Amino acid sequence: MSILAEKKQSAELEQNSSIDFDPFVGLHRQQPNLPAGSSHSQDPARSGDEIGWKEDLNDALCGNNWRGVKTILDQNPNALTAKIAASGRTALHVAAMFGHVNIVEELLKLVPPESLGTGDSHGNTALALATITGSIQVAKCLIEKNRDVVGIPNARDNLPVIRAFHFAFLAMGRYLYSKTPSEYLTGRRGSRFLFSCLRAQCFDIALDLLKQCPELLFVPTDDELSGKEWMPIHGIATLNAAILSPSELVFWRRWIYNCHGLLQRLITFPNNFIDACALCINLEGVKKIQELKLLHAQADELLELVCKKARKAYEKRVLEEALCLAAKEGNVKFVFRVSKIIPEIMVTRTLTSCFSHALNYRQARVFNLIHGHRFKRALLAYVDEGNTFLHKAATQAPDHVLSRIYAPTLQMQRELQWFKAMQNLMPPIFWEFRNKDGITAEELFRESHKELMKEGEKWIKSTASSCFVVGALIVTIMFAAAFTVPGGNDQTFGYPLFIAQPFFKVFIFSTILSLFSSSTSVLMFLAILTSQYSEEKFLKSLPTKLIVGLCFLFISIASMMIAFLSTVRLILDRASYSWGLLPIIIFASVPIFLFVLSQFPLLLHTAITTYGVIFDEKVEMWP
Fold first, then answer.
1. At a CB cut-off of 8 Å and minimum separation 6, what does 291 contact?
2. Which of 416, 355, 417 lies closest to 389 in space, CA to CA?
3. According to DSSP H, which parts of 43-155 are helical?
4. Which residues contact 319 (CB under 8 A, 6 or more apart)?
5. Are 358 and 367 in contact (CB under 8 A)?
6. What is the sign, positive or negative, of the torsion defined by CA atoms of 65, 71, 72, 77?
7. Which pLDDT belongs to residue 43?
8. Count of domains for the chain
9. Considering the domain boundaries, does residue 133 fall inside one?
10. 63 falls within a domain
11. What is the pLDDT of residues 454-497, one digit of tens each?
């Protein structure tokens, strides 16, 4: 970083005396301007020279200019301990904050160990300020000088190790954790530390502390992000939202994830083998998958720890919220295992609330557990504020939940699938049950999904129109190509001149296939455009027509390219330009590749949502 840039950064951190900057939360709090006669105002007796050397010292520290710093320190005996910034920071504070190791080492030779416990106006020691840049070397120098600085909190009661994880400097956080005694990480401070660890996905550190102090699971602290009270057990219940699920990986990454033994052998294999396979395997990607698998293993260990303390959590009345949060985020392991440990929870409102959250946020894996519930009928008969479970399924899912699905048409389809699945579970007597507003579940579904249905209709019409134009164009081209054979016809009998050539047969059959498949796709897209757009049509009829139309359109484009290439092959076979066949093949594959790239995700998502298994009734029975 240049001197000018560092000075600018320093100026942003410490603009003037009216700005109080706390690096932990990154907020500026405006303070009232002090009157001229107050004790904190500028001392009239203070010389301009003192102001000048302090500014020069600050500039030299920001610019990593030890020679300039040394000159000022020699000329001014009080410069070493003087507050050179409005935030109350000394030379050591500024040097540690900017991560200038050489200056920190030199300054530490001049100050006593106890001076490292001095904080700025926010209570941040030099070590606490070093966490802003994550310089481990600076932290090592400070701790070697005074080991007690790791246990000195700032004005917000945050230790340096908490700040390091908060700023996502994981290497520095791990180092400071190894130097911080566990007795400093207790109570609300320990809970706040666990919050930072879980958010930074350092599950091994969180697990190590919880093994030493399991009571931290139930110690509350303030979540600075949401402003609500937070407990470590709540964070463990929502780990599923923080870690990428294996089902979200592409197929080859999922295969590597499942082949853990092969993965281990690959990572530890001799370098010559790795070099030989470097062109086939992205080793960096493999290591990331291994890290993902390790995160899942650590998350399972945290869940084991919660399971051991589940009874105590139930007695402390904190388990209900944890289960609801787990259901909301789709953490099916947490819901199943914790509720299985405490069987009496199955006949309380806790599990009812849990399934209600799973239904509201469309967490199918959690909701599938209802099939293994011994008291399923009693649970489904529950009425909450006049609404049955069927009414809850009839209400549209939140926007952030629907946005995970590919398109409005498929979103409408998924909502219908949830409603139908819930309807099949409920006794028929509840189908006509009216809530406190006098509305049945079916009427509520139709009313709440009115806008989504319009968006789905608009989207599928637009998609079908675009594909219809492409299909009609291919029909026109291939119909003309069928009667315009390459090489022309015999003038006597009218037979094609290339009829005996093998590639002429390829041309004929690919032309016929392209014509038939494009005609079929055009008819499918036409059926979509002229369809009746009722709720039931979005369930299977419209998606199935879209799947068939896209499949035949892809076949028509591919066979059209084959017909074109076979024609080119026949022509070049008679000329001396056979070398040009390979470039033509490459360029001819571009349209096919672009079509697959743009439309295959739509085809795949539509096929999965239409014919895939969403609600699995084969789940384990609970005790």
1. none
2. 355
3. 48-62, 66-75, 91-98, 101-108, 126-130, 136-145
4. 233, 310, 313, 338, 342, 345, 350
5. yes
6. positive
7. 43
8. 1
9. yes
10. yes
11. 999 999 999 999 999 999 999 998 888 777 766 555 556 555 65
Q: What is the CATH classification number for the domain harbouring 135?
A: 1.25.40.20
The reported pLDDT for the residue numbered 275 is: 47
Give the E-state strand segments of 92-251 in sequence order: 221-222, 229-230
Q: Mean pLDDT of all residues in the chain?
A: 81
**Structure pTM?**
0.77
Give the least confident one: 284-293, 425-434, 450-459, 574-583: 574-583
Residue bearing tokens 């470039």? 583
Percent above pLDDT 70 for the chain: 79
CA-to-CA separations, 451 to 288, 397, 465, in angstroms, rounded: 41, 13, 21
Which one-letter amino acid corresponds to residue 429? I
In a domain, residue 502? The reply is no
Say if residue 341 is exposed, middle or buried (CB neighbours under 10 Å; 0-12, 13-18, 19+): middle
Reported as type and span, the H/E element at residue 29 is strand 27-30
How far apart CA 489 and CA 486 sit, in angstroms, is: 9
Q: Is residue 143 part of a domain?
A: yes
Phi, psi of 219 (to 5 degrees): -90, 120
What mean pLDDT do residues 270-291 have? 57
Q: What is the pLDDT of residue 258?
A: 66
Check whether 204 has a pLDDT greater than 90.
yes
Q: Cα–Cα distances in Å, from 392 out to 340, 384, 398, 435, 445?
A: 25, 10, 12, 11, 9
pLDDT tens readout for residues 411-444: 999 999 999 999 988 888 888 888 888 899 999 9
Q: Is the dihedral of CA 477, 478, 480, 481 positive or negative?
A: positive
For residue 70, give its domain range. 1-32+43-157
**Of 50, 49, 62, nearest in space to 89 by CA:** 62
